[in-house]
Amino acid sequence: MKRVHVDNYAPKYYSGKWSWDSEKDCLHFQAHNDLENARERYITTNGYKFLRTIDQEEELIFRQEYLLPKSNYSDVVVVGDIRNLVLYLMPKEFLSYKFVEFMYEQDTHLLLHSLIIYFEHYLRMVEFILIRRDELSGSLGQVQSEQTNDMKRTFSVYLSQYRMLVARNYCRIIGGEDRMAKYYHMKPISNISATIHDKYFHEHFLAVAIQIVWICMHRRAYYVIEMEMNRLFRSEHFVSAHPEYLTFTESERSLLYGRNKKNYNYRIQDSPLVQELKLVPEEDLPILWIGERKYRGNDIRIAEIELEYIVPGSQLRFINVSHGIMGHPKNLYNTLLSLDWPAVRFSNFSEKFDPYHIIKRPYLQIPKIGELHLRTMSERYEHFYQICKAHEPVTHHQICKWVKRDINIAFFRSGGLLTNVVSRCEKELESTSSGPRVDQIISNYFKMMKKIRKEDRDGDVVLSSSRSSVTERFSLLKGSRKPT
Fold this sequence. Notes:
By secondary structure, the protein is mainly alpha-helical. The chain has 19 helices and four strands. It has a two-stranded antiparallel sheet with strand order 1-2. It has a two-stranded antiparallel ribbon with strand order 3-4. Helix 4 crosses helix 8 (195-216), helix 7 (146-174) packs across helix 10 and helix 7 (146-174) packs across helix 11 (272-278). The longest helix has 31 residues, at 106-136. The chain starts with 15 loop residues before the first strand and ends with a helix. Pfam families: PPPI_inhib. GO terms for molecular function: phosphatase binding.
């Protein structure tokens, strides 16, 4: 991962100017960051200010204290990298122990994963609609055929299928299942809803989710992502009217929002995510089991969604699928996860060799004619396998480090040691200790390798079965020989 700032050390003096403060009767230093436009330093998401840029000291602190630990996917971008960056850039009022722990839960990770998949296809659909709008307008506008309308209906159904995955993962959280029970808004004994606390908790999560999806989508179409995220979780009655938001016609809205969208009075209105689960077609029922058990059937569409969902973000290039910056090498990005184009040029990507879809932008594949009718005739079989999801739980020490984020930043700014090559060498030269014991070094090594390497649990079974098979073949050959 490349640095935003070239230097590897924190400056002793900031760049700025001195002025005389007549009220305090002393000199006052104004840094250049304080003189810049606030819109350049911050970005407002749902009324909360997130950092857009970081200075040199903040970058050094983040790289030293808050980066993901080393693992088997340390060289590519995953959801954890984006989550840690957003947690570092978010306002200080978000830093509560409960909220940080919630962001590290497995169900929250799955919800963010499904949101990234959904918005990847949603942005493609919005781009398709805007292009078609230009083609149909004007004096030389094109005439739509029945095949075009059939293709649009297929695209709308495909988008609603990704929305079902988001709705399923979201309903697990709001239902308070398993580990999500401690985040449920109803108290277990008194059955009194913590309305005020739950409202702010929900607002904080929405703002963080918008930032995570926006960064994952190469920081493009921010207002489109913000508008759709608020619509999914709130409904259209409670989406703020911003002049930057796009306006769609009725036909475009029906194409984007699907056939299950219904608007009622705001008192009885359900969110679009809940509406997706109320009327699920029979051929789409296996989508609700994706990620839980292996699909067995001849519906190619369900198999494609399952493959796209269960493959980790670090291995998407093996199935030729793009989800924003997921799975891209970190050496192509800086600390803020912005694409470094000089590094891309030196990687020699081309239209023929582009495993990360950087040169070739993702696009919508035209479906076959009668695709929806063929899916109604698909068959499903009994499932055999359950899918186990690997998740590394967060520790109490990591949560406390995030809760004390501003305290740690203030400590390092006031003179705390920021590790770099020069300071680390000076510290090692001044140190007189002999270092850790040999057994401690070995235990730390095996603990690290256990996280990185894949466990071979079936090695002994495979080895024994192979040996027995060789023995059986040898005995059969020996018994089949005829005496001469």
